[in-house]
Design brief:
rod-shaped; disordered N terminus; Rossmann fold; 23 helices; 850 residues; alpha/beta; single chain; 6-stranded mixed β-sheet; 8-stranded mixed β-sheet
Length: 850
């Protein structure tokens, strides 16, 4: 270790000495074998990740970072490196792009190690195999830009270095949200979309499957923290809830005990949908147990290119991965099958990978054919998209087209002089940015590509379903996509039938909710002090429905409809009124007709026995008028039965009021006649002049006309009208008559009460007058019955609704009319029919004398 440190210090001293003398270090002496170089008129810097380093010295603060000794490496794939080389060769062989100029490159491997990354970045800038800070030793070719495939945070760290020199940085992997701002990062471009669209796609997937109870696992870098915040806000805005957010460090190894506790809590959680916002390496290594957890859906943002790998780890079919849209490039597939070691970096890692393309034997002159002997870990025959090769091609071609647009206007059409081309390259990299920002080109597949205002290539996402087969191999299928630039309504698509779910799921598709869904007819009732996704289900009240699942509030039915028994649909309300078909209407109709017939029989008896003393003594004409008016009262109750119409509504109260006023006026006239007849027998009385039909008829006519006047005023100002009452009774529409003016209605009733009261008082005062046929007692009792009925009618009328209000009024009409009929005329009919011996003048005179 000490010898190694001394050697590194001597090397550094020599480099700094040569730089101080104004000379570049001897490049052949210091060039390392990690980089892959090709000379050209224009140089493209490249930083890719081919190896993954587990460096134990990275966190050893007792040693300066750039002096650290490399640790253990794990070989990944070379497809991104091959795509870079292949794209440059295609452009150099294409006479339509940058004619008379050649592209070269300097490509370094970052090994996913920050120390090696910074060293590689300085090597690209210095142009040598060993870096000198702020010193360029490039002798041929001009560095135009840097194309990199680094994770989000490392891409941002590298930008801090290259932005000093205004070099364009084009990333084919980083979706860093922090760098989605052209004002703060004016030199950053990428051939992948911003993670802002990735977050929107994840939310659309959650919303499609109804996964509202979600957990998030993410690293502690700035970009991921911003993405987690966006996810939380978007999920909650769409009615979802975040059950937990687990943050892990990417710079420190997570202790096994902490990982074990984390997995136990996740397994015990009610959350079945977990968003793993990180790269593939963190998921497959530190958090691999998540993919083994039964009953959990993993939504990951890692870039996958599953071909045929062993599934010895027991992963479940529970992963949906958002990957940047990828496509196969035929020329690149041909390049992979035909390339040889002379076109690749001469390293042991490259040789190991190259041997995997065709097995243990690699002919250099014969095409490698796909066979069963091909190692499954490097399957150039079965790979679907060859890592990020599509994005690498787009990055290299975007840069080439921007250079072409910058250089070609300065060429004369007939010139082939390279010197002029080199002169036009003066000013790199500053002159290149306007052309990159406005770049619009066709890639090798003929697709139109353009950068947006933030330097992001407009592209969508594929949704992969990772499937682990029983034969211990894995594959992936595209089951959906999300493209924010697609036409409205076509941004998100998913094929549920193409998804292979694990057998441990009890429901397909799986569900992830804090509470069970509220079925139609129920609404959600949030639980106190719990997230909005945790709720109870309560039934909708009468008149409201919930026709979908998980409704926050029930919907009020229209006025003419009502909720059904299940509360999931509005049905027409039942139309109700007091009809002739229902038992109540039939009973009231029969009673009314019976009383009408009884009254008619009594009238016939009175007409038949009109000359008998009992009929004559009680004012025969008034008895006829009273009986006819009572017959009309019984009949008018029939107007209240049946479906109301505008005309029946007008006739109901007016006919009732006028006929009853005639009846009460007749009774009042009878009472007055009895009193006058008694006082007329006294010596010297002049009342004999008023005895006769003229006075009684005048009383009946004047009292009835006054009621008719009140009804006329009522009809002329606010007449009754047909009214559909939709609110008084649940689930029904009451067809009823609205009085129009309640005051006028109570004026009619009040006038009837006034007539009844006057008649009652007069009859009560005359109840003890002598006479065998004195009606005062009968009238008093009849008025007592009448007043009792109508006094009890008012509270009953106010306390009932609908057809029962009408039934109460009909009952009051029939009861009061029957009371008048029974109390006044039944005793007389009894005497006429059963006791004819009392129907003589002698009997009348005898009682009078007594």
């Amino acid at each position: 270790m000490a010898a190694h440190l001394v050697l590194r210090l001597l090397m550094l001293g020599e480099i700094l000495w040569e730089a101080a003398q104004g000379r570049c270090p001897a490049q052949q002496r210091w060039r390392t074998t990690r980089g892959h170089h090709r000379s050209g008129d224009i140089i493209i810097g490249g930083i890719v990740t081919v190896k993954f380093q587990f460096d134990s010295n990275l966190h050893n603060f007792s040693m300066h970072p750039w002096l650290s000794v490399p640790g253990v490496y794990m070989l990944l794939d070379h497809y991104n490196l091959l795509a870079f080389v292949s794209a440059v060769e295609e452009i150099n062989n294409n006479s339509k792009i940058l004619p008379n100029l050649t592209l070269g490159y300097q490509i370094y491997d970052s090994a996913n190690n920050l120390v090696i990354l910074l060293t590689s970045a300085m090597n690209v800038y210095s142009g040598t195999g060993i870096w000198i800070p702020n010193y360029s030793c490039r002798t041929s070719g001009k560095l135009a830009a840097v194309i990199e495939g680094l994770p989000a945070e490392k891409s941002r760290q590298m930008y801090n270095l290259f932005s000093i020199y205004h070099y364009p940085q084009i990333s084919f992997t980083s979706q860093n949200l922090i760098m989605n701002d052209a004002d703060k990062f004016p030199y950053f471009y990428r051939t992948v979309p911003s993670a802002l669209h990735l977050c929107a796609g994840i939310v659309r997937l959650l919303k499609h499957f109804g996964w509202t109870w979600v957990g998030i696992i993410a690293p502690n870098d700035d970009s991921s923290s911003r993405a987690v915040q966006i996810l939380k806000e978007s999920i909650e805005r769409n009615g979802g809830c975040i059950a937990f957010v687990e943050i892990f460090s990417t710079n420190n190894i997570i202790p096994p005990e902490k990982l074990r506790k984390r997995f136990q809590s996740i397994r015990a959680s009610s959350v079945n949908a977990i968003i793993f916002y990180s790269d593939k390496d963190a998921l497959l290594h530190e958090h691999a147990n998540i993919m083994k957890t039964p009953g959990k859906v993993i939504i990951t943002t890692a870039e996958w290119d599953i071909y045929s790998v062993d599934n010895d780890l027991g992963f479940k079919n529970n992963t949906l991965a958002f990957t940047i849209e990828k496509k196969n490039i035929p020329s690149f597939f041909k390049f992979i099958r035909e390339t040889d070691l002379t076109r690749l970096p001469s390293t042991e890692y490259t040789k190991d990978w190259f041997r995997g393309l065709c097995g243990s034997y690699c002919p250099k002159t014969v095409r490698r054919s796909c066979s069963k002997n091909t190692l499954p870990y490097y399957p150039h025959c079965t790979a679907k998209h060859f890592a990020s090769s599509y994005a690498v091609y787009n990055a290299v071609y975007a840069l080439a087209h921007a250079l072409h647009e910058m250089v070609m206007p300065g060429f004369r059409k007939d010139t082939t002089r390279r010197a002029e081309g080199h002169r036009l390259l003066d000013g790199l990299p500053w002159k290149l940015h306007p052309y990159l920002k406005n770049m619009h080109f066709k890639n090798v597949l003929g697709e139109e590509k353009v950068f947006d205002q933030n330097g992001n290539l407009i592209i969508g996402y594929d949704i992969l379903n990772l499937v682990y087969l029983p034969n211990r191999t894995a594959t992936s299928e595209i089951v959906g996509n999300y493209n924010p630039n697609a036409p409205s309504g076509q941004e998100f698509t998913i094929n549920e039938k193409a998804i292979v779910w694990d057998s441990t799921f009890t429901q397909i598709p799986p569900q992830s909710k804090c509470s069970e869904s509220c079925s139609p007819g129920y609404r959600k009732l949030p639980r106190r002090r719990e997230p909005v996704c945790c709720y109870d289900c309560i039934p909708c009240p009468d008149g409201e429905v919930a026709n979908q699942t998980d409704m926050d509030a029930c919907t009020q039915c229209p006025d003419d409809k009502w909720s059904n028994q299940r509360r999931d649909a509005c049905i027409p309300k039942v139309i109700t009124f007091l009809s002739y078909e229902e038992p109540l209407g039939i009973a009231l109709s029969l009673i009314s007709i019976c009383f009408f017939l009884i009254t008619a029989v009594i009238l016939g008896i009175f007409i038949n026995y009109k000359d008998t003393p009992i009929v004559r003594a009680n004012n025969r004409e008034l008895s006829y008028i009273l009986l006819v008016s009572l017959m009309l009262c019984f009949l008018c109750s029939l107007i209240f039965i049946g479906r109301p119409e505008d005309m029946t509504c007008i006739l109901r109260q007016t006919v009732f009021g006028i006929t009853f006023s005639i009846s009460l006026s007749s009774i009042l006239a009878k009472t007055i006649t009895v009193v006058m007849a008694f006082h007329a027998t006294k010596p010297g009385s002049k009342l004999w002049e008023w005895m006769g039909s003229r006075v009684s008829n005048s009383v009946v006519l004047s009292c009835s006309l006054l009621q008719a006047l009140i009804c006329s005023v009522w009809l002329s100002t606010a007449p009754p009208f047909l009214y559909l009452n939709m609110h008084s009774e649940a689930g029904t529409i009451l067809i009823e008559c609205n009085e129009g003016s309640a005051m006028a209605f109570y004026w009619v009733l009040g006038y009837l009460g006034f007539l009844a009261g006057v008649s009652f008082m007069v009859a009560f005062l005359a109840r003890n007058l002598p006479g065998g046929f004195n009606e005062a007692k009968h009238i008093t009792f009849s008025m007592l019955v009448f007043c009792s009925v109508w006094v009890s009618f008012i509270p009953a009328h106010l306390s009932t609704r609908g057809k029962y209000t009408v039934a109460v009024e009909i009952f009051a009409i029939l009861a009061s009319s029957a009371g008048l009929l029974g109390c006044i005329f039944i005793p007389k009919c009894y005497v006429i029919i059963a006791r004819p011996d009392r129907n003589h003048r002698a009997f009348l005179t005898k009682n009078w004398d007594d």
